[in-house]
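Ligand-bound model needed. NDP.
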Amino acid sequence: MASTRPSPPAAAAPPSAFEYAPAPESRAVVDLRPSYGLFVNGEFVDGHGKGFKTISPATEEVLAEIAEADEADVDTAVRAARRAHTRVWSRMPGRERAKYLYRIARIIQERSRELAVLESLDNGKPIKESRDVDIPTVAAHFFYYAGWADKLEHSGYGTESVGVAGQVIPWNFPMLMLAWKIAPALACGNTVVLKPAETTPLTALLFAEICQQADLPPGVVNIVTGAGATGRALVTHPDVDKVAFTGSTAVGREIARSVAGSDKRVTLELGGKAANVVFDDAPVDQAVEGIVNGIFFNQGHVCCAGSRLLVQESVYDDLLERLKRRMSTLRVGDPLDKNTDVGAINSGEQLTRIRELSEVGDAEGAERWEIACDLPTKGFWFPPTIFTGVSQAHRIAREEIFGPVLSVLTFRTPAEAVEKANNTPYGLSAGVWTDKGSRILWMADRLRAGVVWANTFNKFDPTSPFGGYKESGYGREGGRHGLEGYLR
Ligand code: NDP
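Prediction:
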């Protein structure tokens, strides 16, 4: 039974915060099976690979055995998707496809607690985020694209589906990335084969059960679990018409190379090193909240995280003092505790990467400050950290750390802020904090970023397109623009 499993200590109370009693969300809502197969042609089947275990990053407890798809399994899944596309899904009127998407959205709402608990267990993110942000936004995506399914002639991108989509997603927002990929693809009449990340397969497999519950025709959605090799077999499969990938820039590049010369369509949503720019006329306390949300939301495992803070020199001391005070109230600990603000790092591998890059920051002469908190002894943990005295040449100012680590730089003039903000190979997002609307527009015109948030950060909405410039990838997901990759 769930209650006999080990759980990490409750969120460690920071020194300056109120003591809260532990408020753990019940694990009993999740009916974890000991093992999971691949979801192919509407059924769970065995994989031919040797399989792997998925663990809770907060406790290192094994959650389940997961099947691993080899090339033959991927081929079977792609064939199932092709059959379903040709015989059923692409022929179905949009208004009928919409009903399935709508039904899936409603089931996601009904099973939202189960999905949120499973997401926090497998990923390590705080339950208050999976419950209040991830899963509601997932349902919103399915509702939104259900609305498009019978209105494609108004999309401006045509009405004919592309075919079979091969979709590969990362571990930072497992269900949300699934929704970003699957909802528009299905709305446009495509069928999909999706590979979730190796460390976070469980909610995708629960989604497979939801597809069964919704009576989705077999083969319309197929889920193949596995590691990088499974992803590679999927994106290079000759019968995949469209590749959609979210993940690291290195793998994105490899995918772009591997499909070059074929007639596959590709959208890539890759890394970021977003500047969060605070001017001296900004509402300071709101800006502090936005900085905290920008980098410590989801342990900083966010491609559009505000990982470079640019502060106007005249307010630097005041802002840093307030930021440190606010950070000291963050609770780090058990992802299933409703009081937790910062959960576990998703994997030992990612923790090593965060530690290594932070040590590079020390070695390059930046000054490290982290919050005082007791970290659990088991699992993967890193305290919310800021580096000051960072220059643009430092690796921690240039590379994606993908963890709860903020690099702080300063500027004097708006022009210098723009120059520094744009001085990155990435271009996914940016934030601007100022009292002046004209300055927001002036900055937004000049920042080379797919999304510019003004006096807020990390706001997501299914109606709004999202995507990058430069090494952050190409193509847009979300909104009307998100239909383009899935229509001829
Ligand atoms: P990857 O890019 O390796 O993983 C993303 C997805 O691609 C996973 O499902 C992965 O499988 C799969 N994959 C890996 N190799 C291939 C391949 N050759 N062909 C097709 N699919 C492949 O990211 P990592 O998880 O390794 O993270 C490394 C770094 O990438 C992080 O430290 C972070 O900086 C960045 N990152 C950025 C993300 C973003 O949203 N911008 C998201 C995730 C990571 P598997 O899970 O088995 O590796």
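The mean pLDDT is 95.
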